[in-house]
Design the sequence.
Protein backbone atom coordinates (compact mmCIF):
# COMPACT_ATOMS: atom_id res chain seq x y z
CA UNK A 1 0.00 0.00 0.00
CA UNK A 2 1.36 3.43 -0.95
CA UNK A 3 1.26 6.29 1.51
CA UNK A 4 2.15 9.96 1.90
CA UNK A 5 3.46 11.74 4.99
CA UNK A 6 1.43 14.91 5.59
CA UNK A 7 2.77 17.47 8.06
CA UNK A 8 1.35 20.69 9.47
CA UNK A 9 2.90 23.79 11.04
CA UNK A 10 1.08 26.55 12.93
CA UNK A 11 1.93 29.30 15.39
CA UNK A 12 0.62 31.62 18.07
CA UNK A 13 -0.86 34.98 17.13
CA UNK A 14 -1.92 37.97 19.20
CA UNK A 15 -4.61 40.28 17.87
CA UNK A 16 -4.09 38.91 14.36
CA UNK A 17 -0.28 39.19 14.33
CA UNK A 18 2.26 36.36 14.58
CA UNK A 19 4.24 36.37 17.82
CA UNK A 20 7.27 34.56 16.40
CA UNK A 21 9.69 36.39 14.12
CA UNK A 22 9.79 35.74 10.39
CA UNK A 23 13.29 34.33 10.73
CA UNK A 24 12.14 31.89 13.42
CA UNK A 25 9.36 30.66 11.13
CA UNK A 26 11.75 30.36 8.20
CA UNK A 27 14.23 28.31 10.21
CA UNK A 28 11.47 26.02 11.51
CA UNK A 29 10.30 25.25 7.97
CA UNK A 30 13.80 24.44 6.73
CA UNK A 31 14.46 22.33 9.84
CA UNK A 32 11.32 20.26 9.13
CA UNK A 33 12.31 19.77 5.50
CA UNK A 34 15.87 18.79 6.43
CA UNK A 35 15.16 16.49 9.38
CA UNK A 36 11.54 15.29 9.07
CA UNK A 37 11.30 15.05 5.27
CA UNK A 38 7.48 14.94 4.88
CA UNK A 39 5.93 14.59 1.44
CA UNK A 40 3.76 17.64 2.13
CA UNK A 41 4.11 20.50 4.61
CA UNK A 42 0.94 22.59 5.05
CA UNK A 43 1.47 25.83 6.95
CA UNK A 44 -1.33 27.81 8.57
CA UNK A 45 -2.13 31.31 7.26
CA UNK A 46 0.27 34.30 7.31
CA UNK A 47 3.39 32.14 7.13
CA UNK A 48 6.18 34.23 5.60
CA UNK A 49 6.61 37.61 3.96
CA UNK A 50 7.44 37.64 0.26
CA UNK A 51 11.15 38.20 0.69
CA UNK A 52 11.38 35.10 2.88
CA UNK A 53 9.16 33.19 0.44
CA UNK A 54 11.54 33.78 -2.48
CA UNK A 55 14.49 32.91 -0.24
CA UNK A 56 12.80 29.66 0.81
CA UNK A 57 12.21 28.64 -2.81
CA UNK A 58 15.96 28.97 -3.42
CA UNK A 59 17.02 27.27 -0.18
CA UNK A 60 19.34 24.31 -0.70
CA UNK A 61 17.31 22.19 1.74
CA UNK A 62 14.17 22.72 -0.34
CA UNK A 63 15.86 21.99 -3.65
CA UNK A 64 17.61 18.89 -2.30
CA UNK A 65 14.59 17.63 -0.40
CA UNK A 66 11.36 15.78 -1.18
CA UNK A 67 8.86 18.13 0.44
CA UNK A 68 6.09 20.05 -1.30
CA UNK A 69 5.26 23.18 0.71
CA UNK A 70 1.95 25.06 0.82
CA UNK A 71 2.00 28.39 2.66
CA UNK A 72 0.43 31.83 2.63
CA UNK A 73 2.26 35.10 2.18
CA UNK A 74 2.23 37.55 5.06
CA UNK A 75 1.39 41.21 4.53
CA UNK A 76 1.28 43.31 1.37
CA UNK A 77 2.48 42.46 -2.11
CA UNK A 78 5.95 43.77 -2.87
CA UNK A 79 6.77 46.44 -5.46
CA UNK A 80 7.73 44.10 -8.27
CA UNK A 81 4.31 42.42 -8.09
CA UNK A 82 2.10 45.44 -7.46
CA UNK A 83 1.82 48.58 -9.60
CA UNK A 84 1.21 51.99 -8.04
CA UNK A 85 -2.25 51.99 -9.60
CA UNK A 86 -3.43 49.02 -7.56
CA UNK A 87 -1.07 49.20 -4.59
CA UNK A 88 -3.57 50.68 -2.15
CA UNK A 89 -6.23 48.19 -3.20
CA UNK A 90 -3.89 45.22 -2.73
CA UNK A 91 -2.24 46.11 0.57
CA UNK A 92 -4.04 43.40 2.56
CA UNK A 93 -4.20 40.78 -0.17
CA UNK A 94 -2.32 37.58 0.63
CA UNK A 95 -1.59 34.68 -1.69
CA UNK A 96 -1.52 30.96 -1.07
CA UNK A 97 1.70 29.68 -2.61
CA UNK A 98 3.14 26.33 -3.69
CA UNK A 99 6.84 25.48 -3.45
CA UNK A 100 7.78 22.21 -5.11
CA UNK A 101 10.85 20.13 -4.19
CA UNK A 102 12.83 21.54 -7.12
CA UNK A 103 12.22 25.07 -5.84
CA UNK A 104 9.55 25.86 -8.42
CA UNK A 105 7.29 28.55 -6.98
CA UNK A 106 3.76 29.36 -8.10
CA UNK A 107 0.61 31.00 -6.84
CA UNK A 108 -2.30 28.74 -5.85
CA UNK A 109 -4.83 31.49 -5.24
CA UNK A 110 -6.16 34.10 -2.86
CA UNK A 111 -9.04 33.93 -0.40
CA UNK A 112 -12.46 34.52 -1.94
CA UNK A 113 -14.78 34.03 1.06
CA UNK A 114 -14.46 34.88 4.76
CA UNK A 115 -17.74 33.45 6.06
CA UNK A 116 -21.09 32.14 4.86
CA UNK A 117 -22.87 35.50 5.32
CA UNK A 118 -21.69 36.70 1.89
CA UNK A 119 -23.34 33.68 0.27
CA UNK A 120 -26.68 34.74 1.72
CA UNK A 121 -26.43 38.28 0.30
CA UNK A 122 -28.13 38.37 -3.07
CA UNK A 123 -25.56 40.74 -4.58
CA UNK A 124 -22.61 38.52 -3.69
CA UNK A 125 -23.88 34.96 -4.10
CA UNK A 126 -22.88 34.39 -7.70
CA UNK A 127 -19.84 36.66 -7.53
CA UNK A 128 -18.17 34.66 -4.75
CA UNK A 129 -18.75 31.36 -6.53
CA UNK A 130 -17.45 32.86 -9.77
CA UNK A 131 -14.31 33.99 -7.94
CA UNK A 132 -13.68 30.44 -6.71
CA UNK A 133 -14.45 28.96 -10.14
CA UNK A 134 -11.88 31.26 -11.76
CA UNK A 135 -9.17 29.91 -9.42
CA UNK A 136 -10.02 26.20 -9.54
CA UNK A 137 -7.36 25.19 -12.03
CA UNK A 138 -4.53 27.04 -10.32
CA UNK A 139 -5.67 25.78 -6.88
CA UNK A 140 -4.76 22.17 -7.78
CA UNK A 141 -1.52 20.22 -8.04
CA UNK A 142 -0.33 16.62 -7.72
CA UNK A 143 1.86 14.72 -5.29
CA UNK A 144 2.87 11.18 -6.28
CA UNK A 145 -0.03 11.01 -8.70
CA UNK A 146 -2.62 12.16 -6.13
CA UNK A 147 -4.76 15.21 -6.89
CA UNK A 148 -4.60 17.99 -4.30
CA UNK A 149 -7.03 20.93 -4.14
CA UNK A 150 -6.95 23.89 -1.75
CA UNK A 151 -9.55 25.82 0.22
CA UNK A 152 -8.30 29.00 1.89
CA UNK A 153 -9.46 29.73 5.45
CA UNK A 154 -13.20 30.55 5.54
CA UNK A 155 -13.88 29.12 2.09
CA UNK A 156 -15.06 25.92 3.74
CA UNK A 157 -18.28 27.92 4.10
CA UNK A 158 -18.95 27.35 0.40
CA UNK A 159 -20.31 24.09 1.81
CA UNK A 160 -23.48 24.45 3.88
CA UNK A 161 -24.42 22.44 6.94
CA UNK A 162 -28.04 21.54 7.66
CA UNK A 163 -28.67 21.14 11.36
CA UNK A 164 -31.93 19.27 10.85
CA UNK A 165 -30.33 16.17 9.36
CA UNK A 166 -26.64 16.98 9.98
CA UNK A 167 -25.74 16.80 6.31
CA UNK A 168 -23.45 18.92 4.11
CA UNK A 169 -23.66 20.03 0.49
CA UNK A 170 -22.15 22.63 -1.82
CA UNK A 171 -24.08 25.91 -2.16
CA UNK A 172 -25.83 25.98 -5.55
CA UNK A 173 -24.44 22.80 -7.20
CA UNK A 174 -26.91 23.10 -10.11
CA UNK A 175 -25.35 26.32 -11.40
CA UNK A 176 -21.78 25.45 -10.43
CA UNK A 177 -21.42 21.69 -11.05
CA UNK A 178 -17.78 22.15 -12.07
CA UNK A 179 -16.87 23.38 -8.59
CA UNK A 180 -18.51 20.43 -6.90
CA UNK A 181 -16.87 18.01 -9.37
CA UNK A 182 -13.43 19.51 -8.74
CA UNK A 183 -13.67 18.81 -5.02
CA UNK A 184 -15.04 15.32 -5.60
CA UNK A 185 -12.18 14.53 -7.98
CA UNK A 186 -9.54 15.58 -5.44
CA UNK A 187 -7.75 12.91 -3.39
CA UNK A 188 -6.56 15.43 -0.80
CA UNK A 189 -8.25 18.73 0.14
CA UNK A 190 -6.16 21.25 2.08
CA UNK A 191 -7.60 24.04 4.23
CA UNK A 192 -5.06 26.29 5.98
CA UNK A 193 -6.62 28.96 8.23
CA UNK A 194 -5.37 32.10 9.95
CA UNK A 195 -6.60 30.99 13.37
CA UNK A 196 -8.93 28.47 14.98
CA UNK A 197 -12.34 28.39 13.33
CA UNK A 198 -15.53 28.47 15.39
CA UNK A 199 -16.58 24.86 15.89
CA UNK A 200 -20.30 25.51 16.47
CA UNK A 201 -21.14 22.06 17.68
CA UNK A 202 -20.68 19.39 15.04
CA UNK A 203 -20.84 21.70 12.02
CA UNK A 204 -17.12 22.07 11.33
CA UNK A 205 -16.29 18.42 11.94
CA UNK A 206 -19.21 17.34 9.75
CA UNK A 207 -18.00 19.55 6.90
CA UNK A 208 -14.48 18.16 7.17
CA UNK A 209 -15.80 14.60 7.23
CA UNK A 210 -17.96 15.30 4.17
CA UNK A 211 -15.07 16.73 2.18
CA UNK A 212 -13.00 13.59 2.84
CA UNK A 213 -15.80 11.11 2.11
CA UNK A 214 -14.96 8.01 0.09
CA UNK A 215 -16.02 8.29 -3.57
CA UNK A 216 -15.98 5.25 -5.86
CA UNK A 217 -13.91 3.34 -3.30
CA UNK A 218 -11.16 5.99 -3.32
CA UNK A 219 -9.52 6.81 0.00
CA UNK A 220 -9.74 10.60 0.29
CA UNK A 221 -8.32 13.06 2.80
CA UNK A 222 -9.11 16.48 4.23
CA UNK A 223 -6.38 18.35 6.11
CA UNK A 224 -6.77 21.59 8.05
CA UNK A 225 -3.99 23.46 9.87
CA UNK A 226 -4.78 26.54 11.99
CA UNK A 227 -2.90 29.11 14.03
CA UNK A 228 -4.28 30.15 17.41
CA UNK A 229 -4.79 33.71 18.62
CA UNK A 230 -4.12 34.21 22.33
CA UNK A 231 -5.72 37.68 22.21
CA UNK A 232 -8.42 37.22 19.60
CA UNK A 233 -10.63 40.26 19.08
CA UNK A 234 -14.40 39.88 19.10
CA UNK A 235 -16.20 40.93 15.91
CA UNK A 236 -17.03 44.34 17.35
CA UNK A 237 -13.40 44.84 18.41
CA UNK A 238 -14.31 45.74 21.99
CA UNK A 239 -13.06 42.63 23.75
CA UNK A 240 -10.49 39.89 23.36
CA UNK A 241 -10.55 36.21 24.26
CA UNK A 242 -7.98 33.43 24.29
CA UNK A 243 -7.73 30.64 21.75
CA UNK A 244 -5.84 27.74 23.33
CA UNK A 245 -2.90 25.95 21.73
CA UNK A 246 -4.44 22.60 22.59
CA UNK A 247 -7.35 20.86 20.92
CA UNK A 248 -7.32 18.50 17.99
CA UNK A 249 -9.09 20.97 15.70
CA UNK A 250 -5.90 23.03 15.25
CA UNK A 251 -4.32 20.29 13.12
CA UNK A 252 -6.92 17.88 11.85
CA UNK A 253 -6.94 15.22 9.13
CA UNK A 254 -9.93 13.16 8.04
CA UNK A 255 -9.58 9.92 6.10
CA UNK A 256 -12.75 8.90 4.26
CA UNK A 257 -14.94 10.78 6.79
CA UNK A 258 -13.08 9.50 9.88
CA UNK A 259 -10.68 11.59 11.99
CA UNK A 260 -7.09 10.37 11.66
CA UNK A 261 -4.74 10.34 14.64
CA UNK A 262 -1.41 12.12 14.30
CA UNK A 263 1.71 9.97 14.46
CA UNK A 264 3.65 12.99 15.73
CA UNK A 265 2.54 16.16 17.55
CA UNK A 266 5.10 18.60 18.93
CA UNK A 267 4.51 21.90 20.71
CA UNK A 268 7.51 24.17 21.23
CA UNK A 269 6.96 26.47 24.19
CA UNK A 270 9.85 28.75 23.23
CA UNK A 271 8.79 29.65 19.70
CA UNK A 272 5.05 28.97 20.22
CA UNK A 273 4.70 26.63 17.26
CA UNK A 274 2.97 23.28 16.69
CA UNK A 275 4.23 20.65 14.29
CA UNK A 276 2.22 17.55 13.40
CA UNK A 277 2.58 14.49 11.17
CA UNK A 278 -0.06 12.19 9.68
CA UNK A 279 0.24 9.11 7.49
CA UNK A 280 -2.14 9.00 4.53
CA UNK A 281 -2.60 5.51 3.12
CA UNK A 282 -3.93 5.01 -0.40
Sequence:
Amino acid sequence: MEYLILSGLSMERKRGKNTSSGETRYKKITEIIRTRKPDLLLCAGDTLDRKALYRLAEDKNVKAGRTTIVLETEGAKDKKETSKAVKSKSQSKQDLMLIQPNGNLRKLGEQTLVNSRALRLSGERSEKRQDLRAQLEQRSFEIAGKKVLCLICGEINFFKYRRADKTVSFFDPDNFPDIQSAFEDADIILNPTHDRMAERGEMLKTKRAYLSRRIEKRERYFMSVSNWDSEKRTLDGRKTYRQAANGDSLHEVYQSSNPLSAIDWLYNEDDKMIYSTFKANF
Notes: Confidence is low (pLDDT under 50) at residues 77-92. DSSP finds seven helices and 19 strands in the chain.
